[in-house]
Amino acid sequence: MNDKASPSTRVVVLSQPGGPEQLRVEKVSLAPVGPNDIRVRQTAVGVNYHDVYVRSGLYRTLALPGVPGIEAVGVVEEVGASITRFEVGERVGYVSPGYGSYAERRNIPADLVLKLPVTAITDSELAGSLLRALTACMLVTRVHPVKAGEFVLVHAAAGGMGQMLCRWASKLGATVIGTVGSLPKEQIARAAGATHVILYREEDLALRVQEITNGSGVEVVYDAIGADTFHGSLAALSFCGHLVNYGQASGPVDPVALSTLAARSLSLSRPILFHYTRTPDLLAALASETFAAFADGLIQPVAPLEFLLEEAGEAHRVLESGRSPGAIVLLP
Description:
By secondary structure, the chain is an alpha/beta fold. Helix content is 29%, strand content 26%. The two termini are 24 Å apart.
């Protein structure tokens, strides 16, 4: 730790819920680095649908006015007096439940930060992929450990998250069925490992799954779309199948009667990454497996669209319009 005056930093502030125009850049002074914190000079900041939910007011989890964002990559600029695990100049990344990543610099508890392995993956690629990669690892190894020979249904298979799930599940020996919203996205899903692709807006999802699986259904559905696909996902499951709803891009799912699940002894999960990384040991274990998956080629980052910090609102517009290639980052 040093005695230099704390620097100022540009941050994106959300003062009230609303549209992308509510995201405005301000200049603030950083507090001194606490004994258990580190200061990170951020080189790339991930933009995620979670941020959109926070900005719109669907998630009321950020005290306003506040700085949104949960994911970034950067360089250690200062370490707290109690920290021995990090050194100034190290490349680090994090996914934080405490928000605050839409910034040039920030102070953050060291327990939330990961040392990044030496890799050819760029800061932008990692910032746009770290949350998705950790989530993919959680989904296919913890929530429903995928086994060889299973049928796996992945919604939004051409998106950044969907591509990771398709690739990882297929490498584990599963037969992946991917859904996409338009014909041009079909080849993206197939290139990521989907053996079969369904245009879920044009085809009867459950009927197509029954045809593909010879009437058995799929063992697991990974669904981040939510309201629009939920009931079709349930209908696509095999006996004792597992629906994993990990997002709600089309809106929240209405309450479900338990009798609906009892019809075929189905399971329903709503996992949250931060619950699976709630201790430093849990985070370290998940991160180790995730970085190994990058190194082994199980998953690959998606080349992100890049926006300046001042263009956070436009980044949200692109994400909500469906024009993202699967990853978007802000460059401070």
